[in-house]
Protein 1
Amino acid sequence: MAKRSRTWITVPELLEELDITRRTWQRWRALGKTPPCTVLPNRKLRIRRVDFENWLSGLEERAA
């Protein structure tokens, strides 16, 4: 079970990790600026941890 919780993260977990509000997340999602999400049958979102980490890496500024 622990492995499953590391593989997928919930939106509240992501919000906490990024220290952003749900409204900010919703705005970013509407603009297509979030990592890919999976919509479960109960309409809750899950994000693969690897997709989240890759998305974060892609946001890093590179030294000129």
Protein 2
Amino acid sequence: MSSGNRSEEAVDVQKSYEVRTYGCQMNVHDSERLSGLLEDAGYVRAPEGSDGDADVVVFNTCAVRENADNKLYGNLGRLAPMKTKRPGMQIAVGGCLAQKDRDTIVKRAPWVDVVFGTHNIGKLPVLLERARIQEEAQIEIAESLEAFPSTLPTRRESAYAAWVSISVGCNNTCTFCIVPALRGKEKDRRTGDILAEIEALVAEGVSEITLLGQNVNAYGSDIGDREAFSKLLRACGKIEGLERVRFTSPHPRDFTDDVIAAMAETPNVMPQLHMPMQSGSDRILKAMRRSYRQERFLGIIEKVRAAMPDAAISTDIIVGFPGETEEDFEQTMHAVREARFANAFTFQYSKRPGTPAADMDGQIPKEVVQERYMRLSALQEEISWDENKKQVGRTLEVMVAEGEGRKDGATQRLSGRAPDNRLVHFTQPEQPVRPGDVVTVEITYAAPHHLLAEGTPLAVRSTRAGDAWEKRTTAAAAKPAGVMLGLPTIGAPAPLPAASAPACGIG
């Protein structure tokens, strides 16, 4: 955590904050930065479940999800009476919906203090301070990136796993997606800066990183190297102490043979691939402006499985895109049967204002979309279960996770992720284990969305990641309440040097 330049003037009021995140992994990554910025400026995180009972509430919004604006204004409406009763409380709205709606937010919710966009999240502390001093809403939307998010202070949610952003923005023009308009053209980080961040994270105890980008495997297009992404994967394989590398979300257009080879030949790159298909119909893919067709997509799947037979492959699919006929939908069903995804995130198409698809002819009636969605979901559920059954009897190394098993307390089990990212619930071993530690188990049962290891674990390996989790947990428990805080600094904190910076996707 960067120290920042805090004022030495102490105040007797403890300023707390809450960040609410909606949408994709990129927003999760940004929210960790927003939390880091606020803590660097002297705020403390509100307790879990505070539900708006904080001095600053930040909404990091998404413009991709259905009814995103209704959800935002509903939540803002619930905070309005709390703000009236609580002098000095501030509300900020950032993210993709803020980038898109700008002045509309303050018009519809005049009690909002700050509106900021996707390109200037580093300005949040100074905008809050300016709104407090001037007693009026501050709206600041940058049209281009001011600072790469990974150069900002961070408060990571996990001690053992981290997001590492390698690019922002997207050069594609998919007709259903508004992200390029809100995040801008692709901008790549320097490879050396990415690797320096990963090395710093590993030094802190992180053992798993996920490379993040709107179109992650297009990395290199901004710096003129078509094989930059495969080279980055191989470079990650040389970082001592880095046990697991994942990435999301790639685009089939840029999924080249050198990437497949790098995945297969780099031991710490996990046998897992999430690659959005969106539709199995060539006609619909063309209408979506997706630059591949079903044969090309299935060909990539075949190559990945030839190189990594145990790879778990997942996808995104949109049902009911404008103009989709029953024949088009059957092509999607055929592609799903052929691909045999470990799981699929299926979405019913709904209009997104500002996208070309919203104005297309042939909008499908909701009841037709719903019926197709149910058929596709049932097919994928069957395939997911069949694919998970193939895991029964296998011995897997599971990285213990925090918060993955909602029933763990009642079942006396722990939960974690296998190398291919499947969720595994397993019997608690006799010796203590911590999130980040690795447990070897034998799979005894499969459900559509998880695996179960009912026997005694075969081995337990304590890790530096587990040490990092324990250190963080102990420090949090020892932190005294009611600490005197410095007055938040006016202005964004100085960026961290790349070597010490801690660590939607739309494909």
